[in-house]
User: Fold this.
Amino acid sequence: MIESMDFVVMRGDRRQNLLCDLLIADGHRAQLLPEPEKWGRENLLPPGAFLVTAKASDALKEAALKYGFRLIEYGNIPSFVEENGAITAEGALQIAMRHRLRTLRGSDVLVIGYGGIGKPLSAMLKSLGADVSVAVRREEQLWILKGEGYRPILSKDLLQFAGEYDVIFNTAPQLLLTRPVLEQMSPGVLIVDLASRPGGVDWKTAREMELKAVHALALPGQLTPVSGAIAIQHAIYQICEEAYHAR
Assistant:
């Protein structure tokens, strides 16, 4: 970094605690804070500090303005999306291996979605020797997937193909694994849903059918918090560097 800076980090999971440690180790001041309504009880860093969060709510934006903090929202920074996606994908493999009695190698696996998580996850599964299908919404993506060695299908056709897979990873933030789709699945299937709440699974039906389905949220914070914290650190340093050079 160019100079020592002040950072106010919003509490979350273990990543935020470790992030503060990393920032302090680099010579900065860092403070971990709860939600804004509790700030009056804290001995806050002075105005001008960078307020660090993945995505700021309206209330947090108002609080930042009130206390004179400069807001850093790192959640949509492309470099962070890429790094965090790869970390999450590796965590998804850990979850699948924990819940299966067979290897992923040689398994028929479906990845729903080909974005920040789905793309690295598909590549990792392929490298392990899984037979990987990828479901996407847009037809123009099918040729890209085929060229990369995957079996491409359209999300709207999940009902037709759902029964062919041993493991299904969902990264799409919409309800795609509905009751009709779940009813087509093999009884031994493992579903790992990586989408934020409420996820992409009809959970009531999954429980009724006694399907093994796991809602795996915030995996970088749960499984690999050091790597998750470093990804955030890289993103906020990038933002600060860009702001410095723009002056």
Summary: Residues 99 and 201 are 18 Å apart (CA to CA). The longest helix spans residues 78-99. Strands lie at 6-10, 29-33, 50-53, 70-73, 108-112, 131-136, 151-154, 167-170, 190-193, 212-215. The radius of gyration is 21 Å.
